[in-house]
Design a protein that fits this description.
The chain is 51% helix and 21% strand. With 393 residues, it is α+β, with helices and mostly antiparallel strands. The protein has a 5-stranded antiparallel sheet with strand order 2-1-5-4-3. Strands 7-9-10-12-11 form a 5-stranded mixed sheet, covered by helices on one side. β4 and β5 form a beta hairpin.
């Protein structure tokens, strides 16, 4: 890739330098042609007023040469710095001639009225300075081209290494994600397939059908949660997680989430204690925030033993700060940095915190609200998740 890029960059740079050179060459030569006419104008005006004047014979300007010709080509006057007639064709227009000594000379032949006759005025200028400037530009380009190519290759090499590293990391993460997702989907699909085959193998009683249907319903709900979670995370990855932010009181959303989680907590005799500061105004999407709070409540209930407490607090410090404190199995220090990874499975000591999408979705929701999540946990003691959200205004 680097070789192909350098080849393409070299061709592009060479074409660019060549284009610039030819444009510069054209502009400089046009300036010379324009100057020839400008220099000739006052001299022709003087000759037109007094054709007998021999001032041209006295001109001796370095690198500038002049002649006055009859229409037949006969040289009537020539500047002092010309030792011989210019080897030109006596026709109006622009020409380039070469002479020993001055070298290449650019000339303009201009007809003018001298008394009752038409003469030709020849204004010439050595192209030595033009050629010197062009030669300098060529040398500069020959040096700059490889230097530019080398600098481009170095920069591209540095960035391409970083890009390739990022692509490799993304591909590796994608492969791991697909592997983990397929693993998570395989279990409910296998259960559904097994229950369906069992039902179809022979006639069953109503009770057996009802039991199988309940199992299939549970697995289908699990599949739906996984698919919805994957969809939410894919939208978040693409930066298209659509939230509808509006002013709201955080304690009201927390109360709704706690009320929804209470039946599940009652099944394990877990008490949800609330300590909310009132009138905590924020700017967010109520539906997504309720889903966010339910994720932490559901996890706290799931990973806490029966007859324990879950403390949910809300305070402003100075921004809204929500804390979920459980008395569950906790998370080991080694696993703590990775709990927000998708389908991450903790070590055997914390195996109850097995793979899932809940915390990944929670992180995506919080980031969409420009907030943060922190976690403090001690294995065997419990965990504290702290969410900080921006305050309204």
């Amino acid at each position: 890739m680097l070789v192909l890029f350098c080849a393409a960059a070299g061709i592009l740079l060479a074409v660019s330098y060549a284009g610039f050179y030819f444009v510069f060459d054209r502009v400089v030569r046009e300036q010379v042609d324009r100057r020839l006419n400008e220099v000739a104008a006052p001299i022709m005006a003087d000759l037109a007023g007094d054709p007998a004047d021999k001032d041209v014979d006295l001109l001796d300007i370095p690198d500038e040469y002049f002649e006055v010709l009859a229409t037949s080509g006969t040289v009537l006057q020539r500047s002092k710095n010309l030792t011989a007639n210019l080897p030109l064709v006596p026709q109006p227009g622009l020409q380039t001639v070469r002479m020993p000594g001055p070298g290449e000379i650019r000339i303009a032949i201009i007809p003018f009225q001298a008394g009752e006759e038409i003469w030709l005025f020849v204004s010439g200028e050595s192209t030595r300075e033009v050629e010197s400037a062009l030669a300098t530009l060529r040398r500069f380009a020959l040096v700059l081209l490889p230097v530019s190519l080398l600098a481009t290759a170095i920069v591209f090499g540095l960035f391409s290494n970083q890009l390739l590293g990022r692509i490799e990391a993304v591909v590796r993460q994608l492969r791991q994600f697909v592997s983990d997702a397929s693993h998570e989907l395989r279990t409910p699909l296998a259960v559904l397939q097994g229950e369906a085959e069992l039902l179809l193998s022979q006639p069953r009683t109503s009770a057996e059908y009802e039991t199988a249907t309940r199992v299939m319903d549970s697995e289908l709900k699990k599949l739906s949660r996984i698919v919805e979670g994957l969809f939410t995370l894919s939208m978040a990855d693409a930066g298209q997680l659509r939230i509808a932010p509006e002013p709201l009181y955080i304690e009201e959303v927390l109360e709704e989430a706690c009320a929804l989680a209470t039946p599940l907590a009652n099944q394990k005799q877990i008490q949800i204690e609330r300590q909310f500061e009132r009138d905590v105004l924020s700017h967010g999407d109520g539906a997504f925030l309720r889903q966010l709070f339910l994720i932490f409540l559901d996890n706290a209930i799931k990973y806490s033993p029966p007859a324990t407490k879950i403390r949910v607090t809300l305070a402003t410090n100075p921004h809204p700060q929500i804390r979920f404190h459980d008395e569950g199995v906790g998370i080991s220090k080694d696993d703590l940095p990775r709990i927000f990874e998708r389908f991450f499975r903790a070590s055997p000591s914390g195996e109850t915190h097995s793979g899932g999408l809940g915390l990944s979705i929670a992180q995506a929701i919080v980031q969409a609200h420009h907030g943060t999540i922190d976690c403090e946990s001690t294995a065997g003691v419990g965990s504290v998740f702290t969410i900080r959200l921006p305050r309204e205004g």
